Amino acid sequence: MIEATSCGGVVIFRGKILVLYKNYKNKYEGWVLPKGTVEAGESYEETALREVKEETGVQASIVKYIGKSQYSFNIPQDTVEKDVHWYLMMADSYYSKPQREEYFLDSGYYKFYEAYHLLKFQNEKQIMEKAYHEYLDLKKRNLWSSKRNV
């Protein structure tokens, strides 16, 4: 068994959530949240911010830690057990540019219910739902505002 750790973000701008569409040689296809593998010497926060920037072109900022999801998948020689640490993040525009080198063909901000139905994996739906409820709670208490507001 191989253990792996990734970090990612639920990025929100004006109430909409950033998701990516991946199509790898027509074998792997679906909408996902931005995430990726921790590199040597990186904190989980640094990894999450870097991966969001690399995969979507978005310079997000972390609002708070949301939680961890876990899953496993098989590769030809072994089973990979993966932990993914998730952060609620804030963007300052609707801009996004999918990373073609990683087979991301589309990206965009969607209303919660649209993003929920687009997402391929149940564990990402659960994390997104938790993050969105945190966002709504912060917004209700007037604690959600961009540091870069004009």
Automatic annotation (TrEMBL):
GO biological processes:
AMP biosynthetic process; ATP biosynthetic process
Q: Which family does it belong to?
A: Belongs to the Nudix hydrolase family.
Q: Does the keyword Hydrolase apply?
A: yes
Q: Which organism is it from?
A: Qiania dongpingensis
- Tell me which residues make up the Nudix hydrolase domain: 3-140
Spell out the CDD domains in the cross-references. Answer: NUDIX_Ap6A_hydrolase
In the UniProt record, does the keyword Repeat occur?
Answer: no
Segments forming a coiled coil: none
The identity of this protein, by name, is NUDIX domain-containing protein
Q: Which domain of life is it from?
A: Bacteria
Q: Which UniProt keywords apply?
A: Hydrolase
One GO MF term, please? bis(5'-nucleosyl)-tetraphosphatase (asymmetrical) activity
> Sorted alphabetically, which Pfam families does this protein's record hold?
NUDIX
